[in-house]
Amino acid sequence: MELKITCIPGDGIGPEIVAEAKKVLNVVADKFGHTMRYTDILMGGASIDVHGVPLTDEAIETARSADAVLMGSIGGDTTTSPWYKLPPNLRPEAGLLGIRKALNLFANLRPAVLYGELRGACPLKEEISAAGFDMIIVRELTGGLYFGDRKTTEENGVRKAVDTLVYDENEIRRIAVKGFEIAGKRWKKVTSVDKANVLDSSRLWRSVVEEVAKDYPDVTLEHMLVDNCAMQLVKDPAQFDVILTENMFGDILSDEASMVTGSIGMLASASLNDTKFGLYEPSHGSAPDIAGKDVANPIATVLSAAMMLRYSFDLDREADAVENAVKQVLQDGYRTVDILSDGCKRVGCKQMGDLLAERIR
Ligand code: IPM
Ligand code: MG
C-alpha cells in the first residue's frame, strides 16, 4: 500500500523526533511491503522564519492532499524567543490551531498509560500507582474557548479582555460519538467532564452527551465536574477509561494525566476529523532547552506514528509491530534521559530510533 504522509518537523526537538519516527516507519514499510511518500511542510516558528506567518495556505493544501499528517512539535521559549514578540495570531501556536481548524480535526485522542517498566517514574504514591492505569482523553479540539471571539479593549484607561466559550449541539454530539465509540472498544466507561454547576455550555454538553449515551447501552456514562476530575486524576487514576471533555478542560487535564504517568516523553496523540484523515503528534512540547542535543525521547512520536498506522491506514499488524518494539526496547533496559532509572542503559534520540528499528526488522 502507498502511504502519503505530510510531515511537520516544526521547532525545538521536533525535527529530531520526526526523523526517528520516519526511520521506524521506513523499516515498517520494508518489512510489510508498503511505500511511504513523505512531503514536509513548515509550521510554527520554522514557518515564521521563512514566510513570516506560522502556517501558509500552501502548507494547509499539502497537508490536505495527504492521507495523514505526522507532526513533531512547534513553539519556542515564550520568554526569550522573538516569535513571542509577534501579535498572537502570528505566533507559532496559531499555526497549530489553524491547521486543526482548517482540516476539521475536532477529535483529539490522548492516551495516558502507566507502562509497567516505567512504574518507578510515576510521581504518585506507590499504593496508587500499583493499580496501574490506562486512560484516554477524548478532547474536543476545534470549538470552545480557543476558537470563540476574543478581544482586548481599553475604556477610560482600564484594559479589558474578553474570550467567548461557544458550543453548538452538533459539535458536542460528534465528539461524544467518538468518545462512546472508543469506549466501546475498551472498558466501556465514559467519564464526561464539564463545569455544569456554573457554565451554560457545560449544561448543554451534559444533556447532549446523555442523548448520545442512549445509543450505547453497553457503555456506562458518568459525569464529573472538571475541578473534581483534576483531583481524581491524582487520587485514583485507575478509575478512568475514556475521559470525554471540551477543548480547554481537555488541554489542562491531558497535561495533568500525562504527568502522572511520569513519562510524558512516551505519550502519543491523534487529532481526527470524520474521515480516516488525522494529524498525529506527541503529547509533549518542543522542549527548546534540549533541542539539537540528541537527548530527546522519540518514543511519543514513534507511538504517534503507530496510531497513524492504526487509525488512518487500518494497518493493525504494523501498528502492533511498532508498539511491541517500544515494549521490547524498554524491557531490554534502554532509556532516554527523561525516563532513566538505576540500572538502565542511557541512549540518545538517534540510538533509541535505531534500537526500535532493529526490533521491527
Ligand atoms: C496542546 C497545546 C496547544 C493547545 C497549544 C500549543 C495551542 O497546548 O496541544 O495541548 O492548547 O491545544
Ligand atoms: Mg496543551
Structural descriptors:
binds magnesium ion, two-stranded antiparallel ribbon, single chain, Isopropylmalate Dehydrogenase, 14 strands, alpha/beta, 2 domains, 361 residues, 40% helix, globular, 10-stranded mixed beta sheet, binds 3-isopropylmalic acid
Short description:
This protein is an alpha/beta fold and 361 residues long. The chain is built from twelve helices and 14 strands. Helix 1 packs across helix 10.
Number of strands: 14
SSE string, helix = H, strand = E? EHEHHEHEHEEEHEHEHEHEEHHEEH
Spatial strand arrangement across the major sheet: 2-1-3-12-11-4-5-10-8-9
Q: Major sheet, described briefly?
A: 10 strands, mixed
Top CATH class of the largest domain: Alpha Beta
Assembly type of the shown chains? Answer: single chain
Number of helices: 12
Indicate how many domains the architecture comprises: 2
The CATH superfamily of the largest domain is identified as: Isopropylmalate Dehydrogenase
* Shape designation: globular
Distance N to C terminus: 18 Å
How large is the radius of gyration? 20 Å
The CATH architecture of the largest domain can be named as 3-Layer(aba) Sandwich
Bound molecules: 3-isopropylmalic acid, magnesium ion
Judged by helices, strands and strand pairing, the structural class is alpha/beta
Instruction: Report the CATH topology name of the largest domain.
Output: Isopropylmalate Dehydrogenase
Classify the beta-strand content into a percent band: 15-25%
Mean pLDDT value: 96
State the share of residues found in helices, binned by percent.
Answer: 40-55%
- Low-confidence region ranges: none
